[in-house]
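Ligand: 4AD. Inputs:
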Amino acid sequence: MLNKEITIKEIYQKINDDNYQDLDNKEITLKGFVRNNRSLGQVGFMSVNDGSCFLNAQAVYKGDDALLSSIKLGSTVIVKGKIHLTIGGYQPFEIDSSNIEVISQTEESFPLQKKKTSYDFLRTIPTIRMKSNTFNAVFRVRSVLSYYIHKYFHDNGYIWVHTPILTANDCEGEGQTFQVVADEKHPEEYFNKDNVHLTVSGQLHVEPFALTYGKVYTFGPTFRAEKSNTTRHAAEFWMIEPELAWCDMNQIMDVEEDFLKYIVKNTREECYQDFKFFYERVDKDLEKRLDDFVNKPFKRLKYEEAIEILKEASKTHHFDNSDIKFGLDLASEHERYLTEVHFKCPVFLTDYPKEIKAFYMKANDDNKTVRGVDLLVPQIGELCGGSEREDNYEKLLARMNELHMNIPAYEWYLDLRKNGSAPHSGFGLGFERMVMLVTGMTNIRDTLPYPRTYKDMLY
Ligand code: 4AD
Ligand code: MG
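Predicted complex:
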C-alpha cells in the first residue's frame, strides 16, 4: 500500500526504479506551494512543489473553476486526486485532481513572478528566494553536500570535533576578528579576558584532538571581519577543517583530492535533477568542469614555479598587479590565470614564502619557504588553504617571537609539541566556495541562506 501522503520525490524514485505500475490511479494527497498555474478554458494545470525534490507535480483541474484558475504563484494548496501515469510524455505523471484546497493565497505584491528576476533582487528577499528554481536547487545541494562531507569523514574513521565559536586566539594572526563582549562598559567582566572574539578557524583547537584520535575534522560557522566586498568573501561562512596526525604535506594533498572528488561525485549523483537545471540554466560549462574535477588529477606545483609561469605570462597577459616576483601574495587574478588559462584544472600550490603564510606552518630546510598548500580552482581561485604544521617546539617558538606574537596566550598551543607530538597536517575548505564550485553560482551571497557580508546584513 502506498502512503497517501507520498512525496513527489518518492513518486520519481519509483518511476526511476521502473517500479511504477502500482502508481497508476493511486489516490494521493499532496501539500505544497504553487510553482506555476495556467487555465486553458476547459482545463487548468497547476504545478505544485512539495519541497521534497526539485521537480513539481502537475495537478490537472477543471479550467472553468474561477478560484483555482486565479491562484497565484507561491500560494499553498492541498491537492487530492489520482496519479495518472504519462510515461514517455513531457513529464512522467500528472495528478487528476478531485479536490484542490487553497490554504493561503499570495497577494498581488508577491515578489516572485513568472518573469525572470535577477539574483540581486532575489537577495533582498531571503525568506522567499528559495521558492524560485535556482535557489530551491542551491539550498538542497548545499544540504546534500554537507551530508556527503560528514559521510566521507565518518566512513573513513574521522572524529568530528565541535571546536568553539568563542575564542581568545586568532588562528590566522591577521587580526580580522569580530570582538565579543557581554557588557560594553566592562568588556573583560564576563570571561576575565579582553580579547574574546568569534573564531576565524577551528584549527588550533582541533590539533590536540588529531594528536589523540589520529584523524579529525571540524565543520562549523567561521567569522572574518575582512573589509572585502568581493563575490568570494563573507563575514560569516562555514569551514571544514580536517586535521591528520602522521601526515605530511604530500599526504594531505592526497586526502584533499580524494575527499573533494568524493563529495562532488556523490552530490551530483543524488541531486541529478538539480544539476540538470544548473547545467542548462545556470552555467553551460559546469557539467564539463565537474566531469574534469572528478575524473582528472589535480596539478601539483611549487609556488616558485608558479611565479615563473606568471612572470612569463605578464609579458602578454594583462594583470592589474604585474609586479610578479618571489614573495608576492597571489591575487585572485593570478590564481585564476594559473587554473583557467595555463593549466585549465585545479592546482595545488605548495611551498610558499614564509612571510605570506601563517605562523604555524612547518618551515622547509631552506628557511625561506613553508610547507603550506593552497588549492586553487577555475572560476573561484582559492578553495582550500592548508599545511603541514610546525611540530618542532623551538622552531615554532622562534617564528612566533619573530612575528611578535603574544606567547603566553598561545602557550597551550605551543605545549602540544611537548605533550606527545607527531607530524601532522590539515587544511580548511570554505564551504560556500565549494557550493559555488558545484552549482556554478558566481556570488557567495547566493550560496548562503542569509548572507552576512561587508556592509550588508538584512535582518
Ligand atoms: O586559507 P584559510 O585562511 O586557512 C585557515 O583558516 C586554516 N586555519 C585552515 C586549516 O589549515 N585548518 O581559510 C581556509 C578557506 C579558504 O581557502 C577559503 O576557501 C575559505 O576558508 N575562506 C573564506 N570563505 C568565505 N569567506 C571568507 N571571508 C573566507 N576566508 C577564508
Ligand atoms: Mg588562505
